[in-house]
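ABC transporter permease
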Amino acid sequence: MGNLIRNENMKLYIRPRTWVLIGLVVVSLIFNAMFAAKQPEVSPDWKAKLSNEIQQETQQLQDDQARGAFPQKQQLLQQQIKLNQYRLDHDIPPSHTTSWLFAKDFTGQLGLATIIAIVIAGDIVSSEYQWGTIKLLLIRPVTRTKIYLAKYAAVLLFGLFVTVIMLVLSLLVGGALFGFAGLSEPYLPNLPLEDMVPGSLSVGQDLVLTYLTALLYLWVVSTIAFMFSAASRSSVLGITLTMVVTAAGEVLAKSMPNFSGMKFWLFTNTGLLQYFEGVPPIPGMTLGFSLAVIAAYVLVCHAVGWLFFTKNDVSA
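Predicted structure tokens:
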């Protein structure tokens, strides 16, 4: 099994396309670093400005409450006031940056890692049929199940590789620009998050949680792409179907937050960071529940992908 996984990794990393995709991550990092380096320094009178902003927001909140504005708007203002007051009380400027905060901001580019993972996973099986090399794989004295698992392992290792590259490079670039201080500093988002308690997580803890939950999301999306790749025999179709399903699934999850049945929908459960930075989208949902739902969908995807891969007629 180890030789099969090694072989799949060699085939993956020997292709120029793989390194072009990884190069996109590096280019994205360079642009983020250029933008961050141009950010203005912290103003010496930032405390006075923030105090004035808190007063204005408090007055606006009172006005909104008097005229019965939308509860969501009032709650957002309350969170913003709480966030700004926490910054003031703990001497944390709104616009300062450290290597850890730079790395946290760069997690916004994890969507690029998702696209890269979809391209790789959606092609790794179907390309064997398109090139005609699937017969060379199947004449080996190994079962189709082992080949299936080896390819899936290569996909997961690639997703881990890209994610680690993003984390390490963003920390190194951020450290070169801003230094490595501030790891234990309380994490405060740029925008208030619903029911988040300021200071409940350190910057380091939040960064670790962000990447762990991103890895799980990559695992889910890669599994969907791998299923389509095994079932369709077409790289273009497998990649396209995965992107459509993922985009539509995310939109559906966010467009029906008040429907309790949506808690069983896959993409309502994939944003696990919501359990640490905010609140679950539907009351009653827990981290354990979301992990169980994700596991069930992954098993279904594997059942479909494995069935197609092991039963397909190669001569067709």
